């Protein structure tokens, strides 16, 4: 399996001198696109009603659980990144920590899958899931992940989205009350002016 993973990596990794456009697209996808996920959740919270806000909380819980699972996997089994074994071309700096599973993709797909499994956000979930493929390609292309790191991210993201949706009864209502209290403290004046939903 390791040999197949490395072979696929070499096939997808950037050449020594990539085109400027492809490199720019990869860097944007690998390093900056991830910020769209918390931005979407923030907009959903600020503009949505109670049902939408609870959906955003479930998606947030899914992403956080996915990252926690990844940390536990990294403690149990540390897998080197390509540049740590001198493989391929690395075009962005990255700390030399465990590569499996990809944190970026786990967070992204955990939110995407959470949206997919909730009726009111299926279209957004599909769009995020497809964009996740671009993130996966970019992080392999730039030399900081192996392809199997992305398969691991799919598995963890699926598990975390399923668990947080299935067990929402345990945390959603108190989490919603807590988040609403913080929201009202931060945006109290804007709520009074009618600029932000209560």
TrEMBL record:
Keyword Glycoprotein listed? The answer is: no
Highest taxon above the source species: Bacteria
Please report the stretch or stretches of sequence annotated as the Phosphatidic acid phosphatase type 2/haloperoxidase domain.
55-165
**Which named protein is this?**
Undecaprenyl-diphosphatase
Pfam families, from UniProt? PAP2
Q: Per the record's keyword annotation, is Membrane included, yes or no? A: yes
Looking up InterPro entries in the UniProt record yields: PAP2/HPO, PAP2/HPO_sf, UPP_Pase
């Amino acid at each position: 399996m390791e040999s197949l993973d490395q072979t696929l990596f070499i096939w997808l990794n950037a050449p020594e001198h990539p085109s400027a456009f492809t490199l720019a697209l990869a860097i944007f996808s690998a390093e900056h696109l991830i910020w769209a996920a918390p931005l979407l959740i923030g907009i959903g919270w600020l503009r949505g009603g109670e049902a939408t806000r609870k959906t955003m909380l479930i998606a947030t819980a899914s992403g956080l659980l996915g990252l926690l699972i990844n940390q536990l996997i990294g403690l149990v089994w540390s897998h080197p990144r390509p540049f740590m074994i001198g493989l391929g071309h690395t075009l962005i700096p990255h700390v030399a920590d465990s590569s499996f599973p990809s944190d970026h993709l786990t967070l992204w797909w955990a939110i995407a899958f959470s949206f997919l499994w909730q009726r009111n956000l299926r279209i957004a979930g599909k769009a995020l899931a497809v964009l996740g493929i671009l993130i996966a390609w970019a992080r392999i292309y730039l030399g900081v992940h192996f392809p199997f790191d992305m398969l691991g991210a799919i598995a963890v993201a699926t598990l975390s989205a399923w668990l947080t949706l299935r067990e929402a009864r345990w945390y959603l209502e108190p989490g919603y009350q807590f988040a609403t209290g913080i929201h009202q403290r931060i945006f109290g004046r804007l709520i009074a002016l009618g600029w932000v939903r209560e």
